[in-house]
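Researcher: Here's a chain I'd like modeled. Treat it as a single chain, no partners, no ligands.
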Amino acid sequence: MTTDTAAPITQTKPTRRPHAWPWAALAGIVAAAALLAVAEMFAALVARSASPVLAVGSFIVDIVPRPLKELAITLFGESDKIALLVGVGLGAAVAAAVAGVLEYRFRFVGAVLLLIGGVLATAAILTRAGAGALAWLPPVLGTVAGIVVLVFAVERLKHWMDAARAGDLETAGVDRRRFLVFTGVTALGAVVVGVGSRIWNATTASVAAARDALRLPAPRTTVTVPDGANWEIPGLSPIITPNSDFYRVDTALTVPNVDPTTWRLQIDGMVDTPIELSFDDLVGRGLDEYGVTLTCVSNEVGGNLVGNAIWTGVPIRDILRMAGPQADADMVLSESVDGYTASTPLSALVDDNLDAIFAVAMNGEPLPFEHGFPVRMVVPGLYGYVSATKWVTKLTVTRFDKDEAYWTPRGYSAEAPIKMSSRVDTPKIGSPVTAGAVTIAGMAWAQPVGVQKVEVSIDNGEWQETQLSTPINDQSWVQWKFDWTAEAGTHYIAVRATDKQGNLQIQDQAPIAPDGSSGWQRTLVTVTS
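Model: Modeled as a single isolated chain. Structure tokens:
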């Protein structure tokens, strides 16, 4: 008797092949990180303004259509630049991931995409105002580093994938570790070098010590806030806006750091004598205080992009007269250290009855960095985009028909007087009040003539005059209040102002472009029993 014995059947579990594209995308992102890190390192060494992220971000700020700028300010407020930088970073990460995948599929295609990105970043840097002779070096060296990292990482990835597909698990494991170690170490190094360089760049460029050590001459004249100018009503804005609460809207992604010892103001163009002043030259002419309300053209009806401060500075008319503007000039193009420009009517800067100044202090201290240290312009009665240039370094006397400023080709008017406005600060929408005695209060401004009266209408009823606080001057806003006996329910409160020339605030609604919003604010208030 024979017994047949069958050979045992061995089942092998198929080896799961890894997907290449996520790792290729990772390689692209790490390569982009290396590009930025090397660029930031060399920017810190040879050209502080040559940061690819900031240059590209600034370029985007310049080319974004006006409606999108307005939407960004509306959605993000003073965080609009942070949102932009986050958006630029996410966009760069996605593009880098795509470059990594393409490099894996098609040799050197991803490297070419990275090269194109580096060229665009270099162009953005070189076209920015103040680009130095070596500004090209950081992005070029960064691009070279990024391409090298991408090609090398993808080659390691291909070795890993080829071994895995061939079933050589031992070799695949070794190549996998090599790829992960290389990308991990490179990514960590990029973070350390990039972040460290940016911090070092900002630290070495900082003039905080110079600002802290700055001792300005005492002003020859001061502004006194009169009794009755400031009512401390909950929810009502103070008559003087603290520096920390003052709105900030500008095109600078990072706050310029300007050393007052090296700062210079140039005045040229259609003048008899071009001049250049140092900071000491400017403040040495004597300082005076001025109470002036500033308003951003992006301020919606009832908005908060407006503030009032006590500014210390020198009249611009005195400096312009040193240069001697020519008779046919009608505009001054002011320029910031970061290349931003504003067009201001020459008449507003030389008017003896309008105190347009070069401000060096704000509410009793040197200008905060984000508000223009060491010198900015403050011009009563004009929206900031045509007058309030921060970090100002140059005035060019010219004509409106010859030159235009930053915002003019972007859909805003070349000249923009501030429109008289009023707003309700309290009660606020969404904050119910209890029936009975309620104080309605808010702010109103009418530069340069001042506010004569403010009226409120409740539920489309007759207009009733409010009580005004004692004005500081006609260039500053005023508070107003109205005692209301509120009944339970929902009510609409409307407000309007009249200036000292008898002009009524514009009722018709208008958007912020091209020359500022208008309309009477009408707010809904809920009264509980």
